[in-house]
Amino acid sequence: MIADQGTPRRIGAVILRHWYLIAGSWPRFLDLTYWPMVQMILWGFIQTFLSRQSSYFAQAGGILLGGVMLWDVLFRGQIGLAISFFEEVYSRNLGHLLATPLRIGEYITALTIVSAIRTFVGLFPATLAAIWFFGFSLYSLGLSLGVFFFSLIAFGWSIGLFVAGLVLRYGLGAESFAWAVIFALAPLCGVYYPTTILPNWVQAVSAIVPASYIFNGMRAILVDHIVRLDFMLIAAGLNVVWFALGIASFLIFHTQARDRGMLLQLGE
Amino acid sequence: MDAIIQSEPNRNEGARSVAIRVDALTKRYRDIVAVDSISFAVDTGSFTALLGGNGAGKTTTIAMLLGLVRPTAGRIEVLGKDIAHSAKEVLAQMNFQSPYADLPRRLTVRQNLAIYARLYAVAHPRERIELLAKELDLKALLDRPLGELSAGQRTRAGLAKAFINRPALVLLDEPTASLDPDTADWVRAFLSRYASEANATFLIASHNMLEVERLCDCVLMMREGLIVDRGSPEALIEKYGRKTLEEVFLDVARKGARKEEART
Description:
The structure holds two protein chains of two kinds. The two termini of chain A are 30 Å apart. Chain A has one domain (7-259). Chain A is mainly alpha-helical. Chain A contains eleven helices and no strands. Chain A is 78% helix and 0% strand. The longest helix of chain A has 31 residues, at 104-134. In chain A, 47% of the residues are buried. Chain B is an alpha/beta fold. Chain B folds into two domains: 1-93 and 168-264, 3-Layer(aba) Sandwich (Rossmann fold), CATH 3.40.50; 99-166, no CATH class. Chain B starts with 17 loop residues before the first strand and ends with a helix. Chain B is built from nine helices and ten strands. Chain B has helices at 58-65, 83-91, 109-119, 125-135, 151-162, 181-198, 209-215, 233-240, 245-263, and strands at residues 18-29, 32-43, 47-51, 73-78, 81-82, 94-97, 169-173, 201-205, 218-223, 226-231. Helices cover 39% and strands 24% of the residues of chain B. The interface between A and B is large, with 36 and 36 residues.
């Protein structure tokens, strides 16, 4: 992306477009916060039940709640980026946007910022409610929480860019991938269990998924009270590769869409 | 006119200013040739019409001028710059309206225009939006969501977006298709006024022959991806020995249909 003086303004314009959309529709706003809250309450009760049955869960208070809320960072980050892109496709606005001076790199940057805002708005009330209902504060993870948040959302963006690119190239028929892809990766991430319980060959695949280091790192803090910097660094390195692949796939699909005349045809 | 007139760029451009210069522009989708090595030049400050039946290649040509479709071959120069290398720089001085692109319907007209004003770096966007709302009779609609408007009102909102950045070049695909005759008439007056005030260039794809006759200095007749004829509306009417441009259009379109029948 070649930035110029107009870059922040153009990025701001795309963010403003999504802000208008969310702020002007209370069902959309509610939708952002509803599922994280429901998930938190469900897993909070499961956690409460298991802590009475198992010494492991009794000692490691919050690993399920922490897992579900951090999983939501990844999930919301991915879906937030993909949905923000789909909004342009649903409204047949993509042709208008891409025929302005807005550059693709600026558009991707704007989508990541919108995704971060959506994720924060959706999850913040759930994190506060978890303290109120179950006495578990995600903020007890300390500074590591910031690293976990950024690492997970960056991985979500990588997947989101790939999915958005698929829709750009193949149309809305590929939309269902947005919901499916991330769940295919969930078993590899070790959200609720250490990845060491996975079969060896699955562990090898899990080792290239940045989120697996984050969830293992979270358990290291909550169970063993150890901050695993090595996990954070490996996750960061893997994220650089995954994000580069996400951007590359979006750019390749965008070029193919231009070649096939898809940019003016996409829509409901 | 029996033979298809091959597309040739106007070689007598001399010192006149050219807003669009297209040379051997081609677009193929696998074995379908949507645009077949067309060449043309559009003078600065002129109104040029792209006429042709469905599938003639008009929309593909406009999409290539906007950078939304990548040409298979050929060169496009817009406002003196090669669009393959300076697309974003050129797009800042252009704008378009097309039935293939909508504005977000959940946003109000004002919100939509404010977003595009930012994207195009419009100075004093509020004043610009107010002025366009006045010109296009949108004042009472500015704070209503686009989805609540009629098709004609949405077309006018789309036109406001197409002029938000005071473009030097405007590409319009069926600009008055969903407007009642009265509204279409004053929209055409708005387009003429804007063209004379801003010395802007217009390239219009339209099926409304009266509109083309009234607005356009030059017509490019397209069929099966080729420019099969060109000239002023009056010259074409005279050349084909017809009374109206619509009759000329039908001659050109049906000639293509007859050729297709002969082939099969």
